[in-house]
């Protein structure tokens, strides 16, 4: 037991605890005038997430590797069912009604794709066209299913995570350059297929004042909230933008504005510092991992976190278009919290194994 | 194999460096962006946050009241509630309006009018939906206000005119601010004086709006009042008017159309100014319906016309004093002599008639005034000429605006004929080639192209009474007299006129004797009867009038002007009755009623 405790990665655990604490405090401020039940529910999600985290600390990375293919296939099948029998909510068909809960298969797919790509590149490098072709097929199949839902945000997360893994797996920069060029060239085509509201979001980003009461309203209000916080903030639970409901979705996607309004730049800085620490720690664990699979999984997880953080803060501060991505550990929401804690459980397991020298490598694998 | 693995490991570590580099780069970039927002743009954004949070709502001032000289309210304020809507804060306009329509029992028409008003207003400015509501009507809305975002119920006051039709032309009416008023800094919910005293004294009456700083949430709902700057009530305006005199004049005039002006002889203060028919000024406060407005506009009795100041009519025989004074001033032989009135005067190929067919016989200036002999004045006018007549008229303030604080005001017309103008009229280039002798003679008895307003005649009566002081008519109670001209007239000449005017009333043959013989104050006066047949015939041709109206329109206008008491003049009176018939029988009794009222007020109270 002591050995098990000693083999835990304490810096990761400490950063995680700080983020969770900051998240609970901020969430309380965001909803203190509204629904106190939300806060209690977040505590329940937290305990579920922590259980998953603990469980995954005990699951050998090797097993996860083996399970990644079936996981991917199940996720893909569920995703394929969405257009056929999915529930329509807010104009998009993204959910499957499972009776007890609404499942969003694209959420599962984010992690499934990451695992399956890590598994695929664990034993090869991304420099042969054949291997790359398989990887692209693995990524594009779910991506095309998600973009028709439509869910631009999740599609981008998926493609971003896949790209990160390809880069980590040794994709020649040359090819990466070609891919970026091709993607940029395909932007007009993508624009053509975008929904009116998505186009509006992009246009609004370019000039939020063009539609101050419509699509630009939320971004303007959240920018005002952040800026009016100043260096030291208006004080805990003293934010006027938040308490007078000028902020949209202030306990989910826009919660960063509450933190930045009430805690000022100091609080925002502390949060970003914690995120930097978290991601850097995951990358350190990745670099120490004993298996290429473990390394790649960690990089995938770090990339997804980085994307969430950059897109969410960029969006609420007026740098990026509004796409619904949560701020890790801060936003209210059960599934995001549970999946993120699960991801960190995986990372923790990789860390434990690298300390315990638990071998899993098959003979002939490129990494020892 | 091992070498391969090593190379692969090295390559992987290199790629790892890429991720180690990207993370702080990306998050550091975000930090810089946040620093820019929270440090360099902090002040601007903090201000915006405050503007978000604080809403400045105007607090309308209470309008100053208008009273008569005895403090009786002519335009007062009554407490009532109003419902306002701020378009940009309304979530579901249709639902909200339906709720309000239900609670306030709006007609379909009113609903569509309101919708139109909302659509045409600025989204951030309150729109007045309903006004003059009692608490019982608004309480269901007030109770549901937190469900009705963008709706506000406000306690306030509305204008009420207790003597609406009696004072309509003098007091005037209000209406909601128009677009041009908004440019002048008025709020769209403010009422502004459009005519009469309400307009002339707008700057005194209006008051200064205050403001209320409110904390509001994102839905525009008021959370708290932060600061309140109270509005300043408009000033009271006390008129010289005596509403009892006005009432007496109106009752004496009855259903007839016409105008009455009673003026203080020494100060020029207006004690009564009536124009009939009037209209209900209270109708403007609730929002005047187009039909009502059209009805007033097309009414042949022209209720919107202020007959006391805007309408000009031939003064008829009330003008004869001026012809007489002009004659005396010119030392015309006729003015001090006698002539014969056979009932007509031959001029070229036609006859000018005297009103008395049988003639007045031997007449002097005095008897010609007392009996209102036309032939005498035809002859006097012919002797002194048009120039002398018009000069005299202008000296006494005819043909110019009186300067009263009411607009629009008519100047009236004085045909001014001097040698150079005569030349212009006789020149072939002029459209009108000749000024005929006969026209001068017609003008001498106050007919023809000559027109004056009732107010001008009242002022003329005051000037004759006070020794030639032509005063500016004053509306306010404590205003001092303002001399516009001092007429250069010999006291002896004026005395002759005074005596003649006294005998018009005092002697049994005088034209106003029967009407005024029992008045409590001894009066001096002059009647007038203006022919209108020619004018009325023009109207008939347009086919606008009913048979009865045509008959009425053939009747002459009746005038009376005078002052009282004649030995110590206090008030001057002018009465004009449109198509009234005869000055003596139709206009003079109105003056009698006014004198009775004034005398009763002066008598010691038992």
From TrEMBL, chain A:
GO CC annotation terms, alphabetical: cell division site; plasma membrane
Name the UniProt record assigns to this protein: Peptidoglycan glycosyltransferase MrdB
Keywords per UniProt: Cell inner membrane, Cell membrane, Cell shape, Cell wall biogenesis/degradation, Glycosyltransferase, Membrane, Peptidoglycan synthesis, Transferase, Transmembrane, Transmembrane helix
Transmembrane intervals: 12-31, 43-63, 69-88, 135-168, 175-194, 264-284, 296-323, 329-352
Keyword Cell wall biogenesis/degradation on entry: yes
Biological role stated in the UniProt entry: Peptidoglycan polymerase that is essential for cell wall elongation.
Family, per entry: Belongs to the SEDS family. MrdB/RodA subfamily.
Pathway participation: Cell wall biogenesis; peptidoglycan biosynthesis
Catalytic reactions on record: [GlcNAc-(1->4)-Mur2Ac(oyl-L-Ala-gamma-D-Glu-L-Lys-D-Ala-D-Ala)](n)-di-trans,octa-cis-undecaprenyl diphosphate + beta-D-GlcNAc-(1->4)-Mur2Ac(oyl-L-Ala-gamma-D-Glu-L-Lys-D-Ala-D-Ala)-di-trans,octa-cis-undecaprenyl diphosphate = [GlcNAc-(1->4)-Mur2Ac(oyl-L-Ala-gamma-D-Glu-L-Lys-D-Ala-D-Ala)](n+1)-di-trans,octa-cis-undecaprenyl diphosphate + di-trans,octa-cis-undecaprenyl diphosphate + H(+)
Originating organism: Mariprofundus aestuarium
Topological category with respect to the lipid bilayer: Multi-pass membrane protein
Any one GO biological process: peptidoglycan biosynthetic process
Pfam families given in the database record: FTSW_RODA_SPOVE
Enzyme Commission number: 2.4.99.28
Annotated compartments: Cell inner membrane; Membrane
Chief localisation class: membrane
GO terms, molecular function: lipid-linked peptidoglycan transporter activity; peptidoglycan glycosyltransferase activity
Highest rank taxon of the organism: Bacteria
Automatic annotation (TrEMBL), chain B:
Keyword match Chaperone: no
Membrane topology (UniProt): Single-pass membrane protein
GO cellular component: plasma membrane
Localization, UniProt: Cell membrane; Membrane
A GO biological process held by the record: proteolysis
Keywords noted in UniProt: Carboxypeptidase, Cell inner membrane, Cell membrane, Cell shape, Cell wall biogenesis/degradation, Hydrolase, Membrane, Peptidoglycan synthesis, Protease, Transmembrane, Transmembrane helix
Domain Penicillin-binding protein dimerisation span(s) in chain numbering: 61-225
InterPro entries in the cross-refs: Beta-lactam/transpept, Beta-lactam/transpept-like, PBP_dimer, PBP_dimer_sf, PCN-bd_Tpept, Penicillin-binding_protein_2
Keyword Repressor: no
GO terms for MF: penicillin binding; peptidoglycan L,D-transpeptidase activity; serine-type D-Ala-D-Ala carboxypeptidase activity
Penicillin-binding protein transpeptidase domain location: 258-595
Protein name (Swiss-Prot/TrEMBL): Penicillin-binding protein 2
The organism's taxonomic lineage, starting at the top: Bacteria, Pseudomonadati, Pseudomonadota, Candidatius Mariprofundia, Mariprofundales
């Amino acid at each position: 037991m002591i050995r098990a405790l000693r083999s835990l990665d304490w810096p990761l655990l400490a950063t995680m605890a700080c983020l969770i604490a900051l998240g609970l405090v901020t969430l309380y401020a965001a909803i203190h005038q509204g629904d106190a039940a939300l806060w209690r529910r977040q505590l329940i999600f937290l305990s579920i997430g922590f259980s998953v985290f603990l469980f995954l600390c005990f699951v050998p990375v090797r097993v996860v590797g083996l399970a990644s293919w079936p996981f991917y296939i199940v996720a893909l099948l569920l995703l394929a069912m969405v257009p056929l029998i999915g529930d329509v909510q807010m104009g998009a068909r993204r959910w499957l009604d499972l009776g007890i809960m609404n499942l969003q298969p694209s959420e599962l797919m984010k992690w499934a794709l990451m695992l399956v790509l890590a598994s695929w590149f664990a034993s090869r490098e991304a420099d042969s066209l054949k291997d790359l072709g398989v990887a692209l097929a693995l990524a594009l199949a779910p991506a095309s299913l998600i973009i028709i839902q439509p869910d631009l945000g999740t599609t981008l997360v998926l493609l971003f995570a896949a790209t990160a893994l390809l880069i980590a797996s040794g994709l020649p920069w040359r090819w990466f350059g070609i891919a970026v060029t091709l993607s940029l060239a395909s932007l007009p085509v993508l624009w053509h297929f975008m929904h009116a509201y998505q186009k509006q979001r992009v246009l609004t980003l370019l000039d939020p004042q063009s539609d101050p009461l419509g699509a630009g309203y939320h971004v303007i209000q959240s920018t005002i909230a952040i800026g009016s916080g100043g260096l030291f903030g208006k004080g805990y639970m003293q934010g006027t933008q938040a308490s007078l409901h000028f902020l949209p979705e202030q306990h989910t996607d826009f919660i960063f504005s509450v933190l930045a309004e009430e805690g000022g730049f100091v609080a925002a800085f502390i949060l970003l510092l914690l995120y930097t620490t978290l991601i850097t720690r995951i990358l350190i664990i990745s670099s120490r991992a004993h298996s290429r699979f473990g390394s790649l999984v960690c990089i995938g997880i770090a990339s997804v976190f980085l994307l969430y953080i950059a897109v969410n803060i960029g969006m609420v501060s007026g740098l990026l278009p509004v796409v619904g991505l949560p701020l890790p550990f801060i936003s209210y929401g059960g599934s995001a919290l549970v999946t993120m804690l699960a991801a960190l459980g995986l990372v923790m397991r990789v860390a434990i194994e690298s300390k315990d020298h638990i071998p899993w490598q098959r003979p002939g694998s490129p990494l020892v | 194999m091992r070498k391969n693995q090593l190379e692969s490991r090295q390559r992987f570590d290199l790629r790892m460096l890429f991720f180690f580099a990207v993370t702080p780069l990306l998050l550091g970039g975000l930090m810089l962006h946040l620093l820019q927002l929270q440090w360099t743009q902090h002040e601007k954004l903090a201000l915006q946050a405050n503007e978000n949070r604080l809403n400045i709502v105007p607090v309308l001032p209470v309008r100053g009241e208008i009273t008569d000289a005895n403090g009786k309210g002519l335009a007062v304020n009554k407490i009532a509630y109003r419902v306002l809507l701020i378009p940009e804060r309304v979530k579901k306009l249709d639902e909200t309006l339906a709720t309000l329509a239900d609670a306030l029992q709006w007609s379909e028409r009113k609903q569509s009018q309101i919708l139109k008003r909302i659509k045409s207003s600025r989204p951030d400015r309150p729109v007045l939906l309903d006004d003059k509501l009692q608490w019982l009507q608004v309480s269901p809305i007030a109770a549901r206000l937190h469900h009705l975002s963008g709706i506000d119920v406000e306690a306030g006051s509305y204008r009420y005119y207790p003597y609406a039709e009696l004072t309509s032309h003098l007091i005037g009416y209000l209406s909601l601010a128009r677009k041009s008023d908004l440019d002048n800094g008025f709020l769209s919910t403010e009422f502004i004086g459009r005519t009469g005293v309400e307009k002339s004294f707008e700057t005194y009456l209006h008051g200064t709006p205050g403001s209320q700083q409110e904390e509001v949430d994102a839905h525009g709902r008021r959370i708290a009042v932060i600061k309140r700057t109270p509005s300043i009530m408009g000033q009271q305006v006390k008129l010289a008017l005596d509403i009892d005199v006005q009432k007496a004049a109106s009752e004496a005039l009855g259903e007839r159309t016409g105008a009455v002006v009673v003026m203080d002889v020494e100060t020029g203060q207006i004690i009564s100014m009536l124009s009939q028919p009037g209209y209900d000024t209270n109708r403007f406060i609730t929002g005047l319906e187009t039909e009502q407005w059209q009805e007033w506009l097309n009414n042949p009795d022209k209720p919107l016309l202020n007959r006391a100041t805007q309408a000009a009519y031939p003064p008829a025989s009330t003008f004869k004093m001026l012809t007489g004074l002009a004659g005396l001033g010119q030392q015309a032989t006729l003015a001090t002599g006698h002539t014969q009135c056979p009932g007509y005067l031959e001029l070229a190929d036609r006859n000018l008639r005297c009103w008395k067919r049988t003639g007045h016989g031997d007449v002097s200036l005095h008897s010609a005034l007392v009996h209102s002999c036309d032939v005498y004045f035809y002859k006097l006018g012919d002797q002194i000429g048009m120039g002398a007549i018009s000069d005299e008229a202008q000296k006494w303030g005819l043909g110019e605006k009186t300067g009263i604080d009411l607009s629009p005001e008519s100047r009236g017309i004085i045909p001014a004929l001097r040698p150079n103008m005569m030349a212009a009229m006789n020149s072939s280039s002029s459209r009108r080639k000749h000024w005929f002798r006969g026209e001068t003679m017609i003008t001498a008895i106050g007919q023809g192209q000559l027109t004056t307003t009732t107010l001008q005649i009242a002022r003329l009566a005051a000037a004759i009474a006070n020794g030639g002081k032509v005063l500016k008519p004053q509306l306010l109670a404590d205003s001092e007299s303002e001399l516009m001209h001092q007429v250069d007239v010999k006291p002896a000449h004026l005395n002759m006129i005074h005596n003649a005017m006294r005998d018009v009333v005092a002697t049994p043959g005088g034209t106003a004797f029967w009407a005024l013989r029992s008045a409590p104050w001894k009066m001096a006066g002059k009647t007038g009867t203006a022919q209108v047949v020619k004018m009325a015939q023009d109207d008939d041709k347009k086919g606008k009038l009913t048979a009865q109206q045509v008959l009425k329109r053939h009747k002459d206008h009746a005038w009376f002007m005078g002052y009282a008491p004649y030995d110590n003049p206090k008030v001057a009176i002018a009465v004009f009755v449109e198509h009234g018939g005869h000055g003596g029988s139709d206009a003079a009794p109105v003056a009698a009623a006014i004198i009775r009222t004034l005398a009763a007020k002066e008598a010691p109270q038992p």
